[in-house]
Structures are given as structure tokens and as C-alpha cells.
Write a sequence for this structure.
């Protein structure tokens, strides 16, 4: 197992280097001025040149990349052009908020997805299956942005039950797990949970149906195993694939959704990215993308290891 | 199993409803202090360290609230144009023998929020924070948003504790107007933070001091910073010791929240989470009014134009074509039909009643027949259309609704034998191209560009577009306008130091630009904002800025 983990970690290294290179180059190759956030279009050429030097944008791209990588390896992702604050602290604060949202959404989405998927799988081709499948299809098909707005209109604007925007009565820095704060989490978490719920429902439904139709299930039943015991076998066989799907979904959620976080003004990585793009804050954009990419790579690694520990066939392959 | 699931789901639902009810009841407990909660359009709290970013919205919320400048805008009237009045300087004059030197008399008895005195040393320190690269407090991040707004200021010198001399690179009567953008931060507070910063590297210590200052700011303004959560909220308390007793705020506390998405802002208002939103979603205006909220708007010094290329071969070099385009647009139709009333038709950079308006002889209005006649005179007609191309963006700061508005113009100009092509690009790219000019390949063959602009001061409103020396790469004369009359009038205005005579010279320049149909003048923004009916005594001036001091709130 250790050898497998070591091999997977080695595979990750070139991916991380490529990710760093791509996210550095992408934002540099985009048109527009990197100093647009702090340099009005009417600034003199002299002033523009002065600031370009001050921020190091006058240096050749390979030099800029080398310096950026070197600093990143030492935990310094630079300073936001727009705010002057360290990028790392900006990103970590946003990551914390996105993790909070993703965890809440995962609890909702995974619970509903697994439940609906198992129900649909057990009752295939009945009206129960049709209802569950319809919910799953709707979850995957409904645009997030639209659903978020509808929920806000119903629960915030019309009923005044839940807040429409924000991450707590005093902002995310005073977050605690009480109802006064959880109220702010409900609508964005439900909106975020809808797609994973749909995907997991469909996956688990297919897996359950497939497993239930296999000969070994008949054999187990013929041996007199109680239905709860059969259910245990179904779960065990479905788990590796379901975990892979949930891991991917968790990865997407931890990446933050620009649309959902913008609709709800949730101060996570999605909103941070949105802000960095619109302000064309290159260091912030690069830092955020890098951290998110690393996060995703790390999460995939964890899922791979977890899968391998459950299913020895994966390790051997 | 499913029965159990059903039961527990029902329990959860009941618990959730009870919890929501309890929380709602708690929130309804009356608060003793008055709190004004404002949703800004900014994606982040504008910088709080003295020189805000995010354009004039930054100045509105974290500049003019916590800080003062030597000169300030009069924001007390909803009907008169905002003009410059004394701020931290009580009077100023230009040296008769050397009109590059100005003397400013400072207001006595003013203190920063940290208790340190405001004096000539503080003014010199604040000028040097953005102009003197070897000053300990020099901060490159504040330079971009400051230096370009006072392009001729060269240095500051203390004469005595209450008198300071400012020097410009060239004679410039616009200086007092430009100085509204230089906010005075507390040197004493910064120095204390600098001394506290660790290490021997002076630059790193200065950067650390400014970062700490941004989280615990100190100016002389009517509001003091009390709490700052980056990207989420800024809380300000009224400054009871403000030097202008008439402008001590009536509301105890103000909370600023960045909510960039217009539907989210509108929902926050309708849900009772905030009391005031900037720029409500236009299609929600009717609902907002129906729910008892108040929409405030007023003509803003802002222009939504097409800036014409005047390079060789441009179709806009023919004044008949420029005038025809200006006469071919039904601006009232655009206002009432497309923008729900949220614009003022533009007949120039500034409108009648403004001190820089002047008396143009060319009247910009909707006159289809006159426009068609001009086009026919220029050699165009139904069978020979004039193709023009305009570069614009799909969104952007101050751009209002650029695509629908440009499509409206496209349809309108078709009536006058124009074939309008639109080159739609990303906002930041458009903004960058604006500086590169009509001759640059990034113009992509366009012979007009659609970038909105602020018209608060003469340089931003006119000089940078009309003076030939302001052509790229120097400034924003995108179309390379080269008109000796404009150049003479700019020089005259810059070198007329008596305010009324200077305004008269600017009015001549403005009238000349309208008579020349220098731009396709379309609209002025009206800065719409929606307010809770609890808010009283708010005056929306004809300005980008507002004064929060007179605002009161009923329980």
C-alpha cells in the first residue's frame, strides 16, 4: 500500500508543476494591462512605467515565473495589487469559507443523493424510481444561478425567513455553528448541493440496479441471507465507484462556484476569483487558481488512496 | 426503514421551522443605536488607507467618509451643480509672480481620529506619500489612483504650522479641483505602526505599516473606522468631534457591504438585510417602489458617448456626419423605453445650469429630418450607406447597459443611412485599448469607441480628450483630435486663475466641443439608489459623491 501511495505522489509532481506553469501563463497571456486595477487609463506613461517596475511586470516572463515559483515554494504568493494584502491570507480566508459551504452542501447532496439513488435502484421501473430519477435529472439540469435566485425570492424576499446574502451577521470572521450563522448557510448550501445530489442519485441508482441483478445476490438470497445483509453487500460493491464520484463532486464544490457565491455574496474562492478577474488582480488570480488546483490534485490523491484501500483490484492495476 | 425516514424528515422540518421562527423573532428586537447598512456595487471594500481604489465609488465610501481633503465638493444641493468649497484648507491663492506656486491656509483645530493634530507637516507628508519616491511613507499602491488625478502637482513645502505651499509643474488653475482627490491620512498613526513593524528593511516596514493602517485607519473625516472584515464589511461610527459641527453624522453607525451582483443587492434590500443599495437592478425598480422603498436618482457628471476617430480616412472627419449622428438618436425614447427612466439625455459633456456649459450654437436633439438632410449633403442616402464601426464592451464600470444601448443606436442610425458594426470586447481590454488610440491595431478597424467617463473636473471632463497633446500614448484623446481652437482654449482655461473667469474659459471650451460635435453625446447616468423608507433627509446631489452626514433613520 505504501508503495502505491508513493507512486501516486510521484505522479502528482509533474501535474503540480504543469498546473503552476499554466496558471501563471494563462493570466499573463490574456489581453489588457496587469496594472488596470490601480492604474487609471489616463495615467501618464511615466507613471505606468514606474509602477510596472515597482510591481516587477517589466521583467521577462521566465524571470517573473521563476521568482513567483520560488516565492510560492516558500509560502509567499505575493501581494494583491488591488488591496495590498498578502494573497495567501486572502486565499486561505476564502478557502475556509468555501470549505464551510462545501461541507454543508456535501452533507445535503450526498445524503439525498445516496438515499434517492438506493431507493431508485431498489425500486427500479416503479413510480418511486420515476420520482427519484426526475428529481435527479432536475438537479443536474436546473441552472444553479436561476435556482439560487428562485430560492432567494421565495425564502428571503417573500417569506423573510432566511438571509439573501452574506456569511453571517458580522461577516465570516465571527463564524460559529449556531442557528444565527447557519441561517446564512442554508440557501447557498442547498443550491450548491443540487448538482452533486443529482449526479450521485443517478450513479448509485445504476450501481444498485446492476449489483442487484447479479448472480451473487441471488445466491446470497438463496442461502437465506436476510435483506439487510444483502443491502450490506450492495453497499460494499457500490462504494468504490460512489466514492470516486463523491470525491470528484467534493473537489468541484471545494473549488467554489463563482455563480453561486456571487448570487449569495458568499465570501469564498468563487467570489474571490470573480473579484480577481474583474479587477484584473494578477497575483490574486494566480494564487487563487494555484491553491484551488493543488487542492483538487490533493483531493484526487486522497480519493485514489481511499479507493485502493477499499478495493484491492485498483491497487494491483 | 422508509417509514422511519419519513418520520425523522418530518421532525427535522418541524425543528427547522421552529428554529427559523425563533431566529426571526430575535432579529426583530429593536436596536437602540441607529445603523445604516449600505450595499455597494464594489466587489470588495474599496481601499481604506487614504487613497481608495474602485474609482469614484471608492472615494464615495472610504474616501469622503473617513477622510477629508484640502478642498471638497459641496454636496448639499440636489439642484445646483456641485462645486469646490474649502475643506481642510480655508483659503488658497496662486503666487502673482510665479503662477506655479500656490499657498493654502489650513483650518485650525482639526484633529485626526487618533487625536494627533492636522497641520502643514501632515499635508507635506500626504503629498509625499504619493509623489516622493524616497520618502519613508511612499506607497506605490496609492500612486496610480492619485497622481493621475492631479497630474501637475510637483511638491509641497511647509511655510508655517498652518500654511503650506504647493508647486505645480506648469501653470494649472485646475489644482484646487484636483486636490479633492488627495485625502489626508494621519502621519502620527502611520509612524506608530511603522515603529511597531518588525525588521530593519525600511520598505518592508513601510508596507507593513500601510497594511496595518488600512485595517485601523485614521483620517479627519465625519466617520471613524470601527471594524474591518476584508472583502465583507466595513463598519464606521460617527465622529462626534468632527470639525464641521453641521456635518456631524446623525446616524450612529454605518455598515458598508460589497455586493457586486445587482440582483443580490436588490434581494438583500427586499429581504431587509440592508437599508440602502447602490444601482438596483433596472427591471426590479417597479417591485422596489411597490414594496415602499424609495428610488433616488439625479443627473451625474458622467457621459456615455461614442468617441470619434479623427485619423486620416475616418468617416467622422466630416462635421456633417458627426452632427447627423448626434441629431439621429431619440434619447428620450432610449430613456423611457430602454432604461426605465434611469438616464438623462446628453446634449454635451455638461448640461444647462452647469458653470462649464457655455452657449453652444449646435443644439443636440432628436431631429431625424435634419440628420437625414445632413447625411444627404455629405453624399449618403438609402442606397449609399456609411459603414462605421464602434468598439464597446458587454459590461464595465459606468458603462450602464452597453449592448442594448449600442443596439438601440445601431437601429436609430440606420434611419440616417449609417451601417453600424459593433466590435464587442472584454471591459478591461477595452479600457486598455482606450489608451492605445484609434491608430493602434487593437482598435481593430473601429472608428469610434464607447467608454464612459467622469466629468467632475476639467481635465477628466474635457482636456484629456480635446487637447492635441493628450493623444496616445500620453492620455485619452483616443481619436487624435487636433483642433488648434481647442488647444488655445485649454491653455486659456489652465492659465486663468480666478475661479469665475476659469469657469468661463471652460464654458467656451465646452461650447466649442459641442459646436464641433466632437463626440456622439448619448446619456448621463443618474446614479440610481434604492433606500428604505426609514431613511430621511438624504439629498442626492448632481455628483458622483454623496454626504451621509444629514441622513437620519426612523425606528
Amino acid at each position: 500500500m505504501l508503495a502505491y501511495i508513493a507512486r501516486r505522489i510521484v505522479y502528482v509532481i509533474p501535474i503540480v508543476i504543469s498546473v503552476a506553469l499554466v496558471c501563471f501563463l494563462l493570466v499573463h497571456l490574456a489581453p489588457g494591462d496587469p496594472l488596470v486595477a490601480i492604474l487609471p487609463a489616463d495615467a501618464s506613461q511615466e507613471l505606468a512605467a514606474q509602477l510596472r517596475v515597482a510591481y516587477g511586470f517589466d521583467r521577462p516572463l521566465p524571470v517573473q515565473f521563476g521568482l513567483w515559483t520560488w516565492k510560492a515554494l516558500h509560502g509567499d504568493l505575493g501581494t494583491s495589487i488591488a488591496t495590498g494584502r498578502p494573497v495567501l491570507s486572502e486565499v486561505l480566508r476564502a478557502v475556509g469559507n468555501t470549505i464551510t459551504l462545501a461541507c454543508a452542501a456535501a452533507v445535503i447532496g450526498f445524503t439525498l443523493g445516496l438515499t434517492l439513488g438506493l431507493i431508485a435502484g431498489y425500486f427500479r421501473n416503479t413510480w418511486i424510481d420515476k420520482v427519484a430519477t426526475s428529481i435527479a435529472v432536475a438537479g443536474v439540469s436546473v441552472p444553479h444561478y436561476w435556482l439560487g435566485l428562485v430560492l432567494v425570492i421565495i425564502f428571503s424576499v417573500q417569506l423573510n425567513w432566511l438571509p439573501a446574502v452574506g456569511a453571517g451577521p458580522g461577516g465570516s470572521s465571527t463564524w460559529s455553528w449556531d442557528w444565527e450563522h447557519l441561517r446564512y448557510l442554508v440557501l447557498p448550501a442547498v443550491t450548491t448541493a443540487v448538482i452533486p445530489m443529482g449526479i450521485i442519485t443517478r450513479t448509485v441508482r445504476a450501481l444498485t440496479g446492476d449489483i442487484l441483478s447479479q448472480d451473487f445476490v441471488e445466491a446470497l438470497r438463496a442461502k437465506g441471507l436476510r435483506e439487510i445483509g444483502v443491502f450490506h453487500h450492495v453497499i460494499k460493491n457500490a462504494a468504490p465507484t460512489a466514492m470516486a464520484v463523491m470525491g470528484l463532486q467534493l473537489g468541484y464544490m471545494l473549488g467554489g462556484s463563482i455563480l453561486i457565491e456571487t448570487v449569495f455574496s458568499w465570501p469564498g474562492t468563487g467570489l474571490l476569483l470573480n473579484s480577481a478577474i474583474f479587477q484584473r488582480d494578477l497575483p490574486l488570480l494566480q494564487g487563487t487558481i494555484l491553491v484551488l488546483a493543488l487542492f483538487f490534485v490533493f483531493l484526487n490523491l486522497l480519493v485514489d488512496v481511499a479507493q485502493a484501500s477499499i478495493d484491492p483490484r485498483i491497487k494491483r492495476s | 426503514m422508509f417509514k422511519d425516514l419519513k418520520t425523522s424528515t418530518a421532525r427535522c422540518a418541524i425543528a427547522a421551522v421552529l428554529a427559523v421562527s425563533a431566529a426571526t423573532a430575535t432579529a426583530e428586537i429593536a436596536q437602540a443605536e441607529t445603523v445604516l447598512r449600505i450595499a455597494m456595487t464594489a466587489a470588495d471594500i474599496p481601499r481604506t488607507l487614504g487613497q481608495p481604489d474602485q474609482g469614484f465609488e471608492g472615494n464615495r465610501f472610504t474616501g469622503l467618509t473617513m477622510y477629508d481633503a484640502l478642498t471638497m465638493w459641496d454636496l448639499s444641493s440636489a439642484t445646483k451643480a456641485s462645486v469646490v468649497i474649502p475643506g481642510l484648507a480655508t483659503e488658497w491663492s496662486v503666487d502673482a509672480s510665479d503662477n506655479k506656486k500656490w499657498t493654502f491656509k489650513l483650518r485650525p483645530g482639526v484633529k485626526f481620529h487618533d487625536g494627533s493634530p492636522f497641520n502643514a507637516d501632515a499635508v507635506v507628508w500626504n503629498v509625499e506619500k504619493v509623489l516622493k519616491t524616497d520618502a519613508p511613507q511612499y506607497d506605490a499602491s496609492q500612486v496610480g489612483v492619485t497622481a493621475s488625478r492631479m497630474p501637475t502637482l510637483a511638491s509641497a513645502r511647509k511655510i508655517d504650522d498652518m500654511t503650506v505651499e504647493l508647486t505645480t509643474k506648469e501653470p494649472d488653475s485646475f489644482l484646487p479641483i484636483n486636490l479633492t482627490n488627495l485625502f489626508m491620512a494621519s502621519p502620527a498613526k502611520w509612524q506608530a505602526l511603522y515603529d511597531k513593524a518588525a525588521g530593519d528593511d525600511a520598505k518592508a516596514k513601510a508596507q507593513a505599516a500601510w497594511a496595518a493602517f488600512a485595517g485601523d485607519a485614521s483620517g479627519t473625516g465625519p466617520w471613524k473606522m470601527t471594524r474591518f472584515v476584508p472583502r465583507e464589511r466595513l463598519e464606521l461610527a460617527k465622529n462626534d468631534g468632527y470639525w464641521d459641527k453641521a456635518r456631524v453624522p446623525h446616524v450612529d453607525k454605518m455598515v458598508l457591504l460589497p455586493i457586486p451582483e445587482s440582483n443580490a443587492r436588490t434581494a438583500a434590500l427586499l429581504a431587509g438585510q440592508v437599508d440602502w443599495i447602490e444601482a438596483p437592478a433596472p427591471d426590479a425598480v417597479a417591485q422596489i417602489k411597490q414594496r415602499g422603498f424609495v428610488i433616488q436618482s439625479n443627473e451625474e457628471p458622467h457621459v456615455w458617448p461614442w468617441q470619434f476617430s479623427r485619423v486620416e480616412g475616418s468617416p467622422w472627419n466630416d462635421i456633417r456626419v458627426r452632427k447627423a449622428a448626434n441629431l439621429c438618436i431619440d434619447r428620450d425614447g432610449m430613456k423611457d423605453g430602454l432604461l426605465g427612466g434611469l438616464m438623462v439625455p446628453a446634449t454635451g459633456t455638461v448640461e444647462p445650469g452647469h458653470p462649464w456649459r457655455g452657449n453652444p450654437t449646435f443644439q443636440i436633439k432628436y431631429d431625424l429630418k435634419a440628420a437625414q438632410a445632413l447625411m444627404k449633403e455629405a453624399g449618403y442616402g438609402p442606397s449609399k450607406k456609411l459603414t462605421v464601426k464602434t468598439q464597446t464592451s458587454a459590461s464595465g464600470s459606468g458603462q450602464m447597459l452597453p449592448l442594448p444601448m449600442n443596439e438601440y443606436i445601431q437601429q436609430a442610425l440606420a434611419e440616417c443611412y449609417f451601417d453600424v458594426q459593433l466590435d464587442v470586447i472584454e471591459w478591461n481590454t477595452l479600457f486598455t485599448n482606450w489608451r492605445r488610440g484609434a491608430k493602434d491595431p487593437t482598435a481593430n478597424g473601429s472608428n469610434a469607441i464607447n467608454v464612459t467617463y467622469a466629468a467632475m473636473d476639467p481635465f477628466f471632463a474635457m482636456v484629456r480628450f480635446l487637447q492635441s497633446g493628450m493623444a496616445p500614448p500620453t492620455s485619452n484623446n483616443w481619436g487624435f483630435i487636433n483642433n488648434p481652437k481647442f488647444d488655445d482654449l485649454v491653455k486659456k482655461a489652465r492659465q486663468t486663475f480666478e475661479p469665475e473667469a476659469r469657469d468661463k474659459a471652460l464654458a467656451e471650451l465646452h461650447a466649442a466641443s459641442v459646436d464641433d460635435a466632437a463626440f456622439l453625446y448619448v446619456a448621463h447616468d443618474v446614479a440610481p439608489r434604492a433606500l428604505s423608507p426609514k431613511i430621511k433627509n438624504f439629498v442626492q446631489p448632481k455628483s458622483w459623491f454623496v454626504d451621509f452626514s444629514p441622513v437620519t433613520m426612523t425606528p
